Amino acid sequence: MYKLALSAVISLMFVSAGLTTASVAQAATAQSAASKKAQVKKVKARQTVRLSAPRVEGRVVKRITRVNGRKKVSYQRLITAAPAFATMGDLAGLSATRDPLDLKSNVALVLDQANSEVLFEKNSNIALPIASITKMMTGLVVVEAEQDMDEVLTVTDEDVDRAKFSSSRLRVGAQLTRANMLHIALMSSENRAASALGRNYPGGKPAFVEAMNAKARELGMSDTHYVDSSGLSKMNVASARDLAKLAMAAYEHPMLRQFSTDANAIVEANGRPMQFGTTNRLVANPDWSIGLQKTGFINEAGRCLLMQAVIEGRSVIMVFLDSKGTQSRVADAGRIRKWIEALKPATLNIGGGSAPVYSTGM
């Protein structure tokens, strides 16, 4: 009786409130559904679904995502490490070479710029892919050809990379002066700019590549061969010793020194300003005095760096090829710098002698 009376009272309470037990259940269900719907909507608002994976070969990657049901395209500078990939140096067994500085580069060469004395070498005679270090030879050919640097060049479909599908901020139809093309090719490693420079050489790309190889022969770069002006092909190869010769020759041109060592610059494309930055963070480091530099990366080459710098008042040329890790080539440059700073001047072969301070490799 008590339970029946209690049920009656509760029922009367719901009725008096204008609600029945069934309506309460319906209201609760509706509220729960609305809450779940709101939560799902909130999660979807925060969720970004990746529709395509970025390609790791380019310095700028294209990402296609979907946010709140809408397709979004964005471009980002690649900062994540590339997936494990056997480089040409690894395949040649160079990774087995050890050195006292524990460099992460399979190939290294350091020499005194004043007298070409070798201070440090590791597998320096092995020809390997050099990636975008190629662009330093591209720049050398352009400036020595004395082409009109104010001539406006147009990016065409021929300049689009269909080998490694690297991205570019220069759209087909973009117009820049030859000087600006060269500037961002050296500073930001712009592949389409490097391609446009070669294509606008008298005789086109084939003649430009032949001029690159002819210049290499002139400089005594016997281990070097070029097939394009950008370095995207793994067939662009050179030894570290050859690249040191290239650095010596390129350093003689103020334009190459300036363009390659600018930390950032604003250039005009189709009359509109575009800002570009360097691919080498050491350039903006006040602790470094860098007179010429070029970085490079493709999977087959690993991380590469060509650089002229002043250390302890002495100008040196440094070459690092097939380095592992996004910052490893820069870290290797730092290791070499500390090593040179710690050495006594008498041990640096300055003023005579032919034996390097350290030499190893195949």
Topology:
Blueprint: H1 2-16, H2 21-46, E1 48-52, E2 60-67, E3 70-77, H3 88-91, E4 105-112, E5 118-122, E6 128-129, H4 134-144, E7 152-154, E8 175-177, H5 178-187, H6 191-199, H7 204-218, E9 237-238, H8 240-250, H9 254-261, E10 264-269, E11 272-277, E12 290-298, E13 302-311, E14 314-323, H10 328-342, E15 358-360
Parallel strand pairs: 5-15
Antiparallel strand pairs: 1-2, 2-3, 4-5, 4-14, 6-9, 7-8, 10-11, 12-13, 13-14
Helix pairs in contact: 4-8, 5-6, 5-9
Describe this structure in words.
This protein is of the alpha+beta class. It has one domain (about 90-360): Beta-lactamase (3-Layer(aba) Sandwich), CATH 3.40.710. The chain is about 35% helix and about 25% strand. The chain contains 10 helices and 15 strands. The protein has helices spanning about 1-15, 20-45, 90, 135-145, 180-185, 190-200, 205-220, 240-250, 255-260, 330-340, and strands at about 50, 60-65, 70-75, 105-110, 120, 130, 150-155, 175, 235-240, 265-270, 270-275, 290-300, 300-310, 315-325, 360. The radius of gyration is 30 Å and the shape is globular.
User: Structural class given helices, strands, pairing?
Assistant: alpha+beta
Overall, the morphology is: globular
Assembly category: single chain
- Rg calc: 30 Å
The helix content, as a percent range, equals: 25-40%
- Poorly predicted tracts of residues: 1-25, 40-58, 79-83, 349-354
Number of domains: 1
* Helix/strand order, N-terminal first: HHEEEHEEEHEEHHHEHHEEEEEHE
The average pLDDT value, as a whole number, equals 83
Tell me the CATH architecture: 3-Layer(aba) Sandwich
Reading off the top of the CATH hierarchy, the class is best stated as Alpha Beta
The CATH topology: Beta-lactamase
In terms of DSSP E residues, the strand content is 15-25%
Number of strands: 15
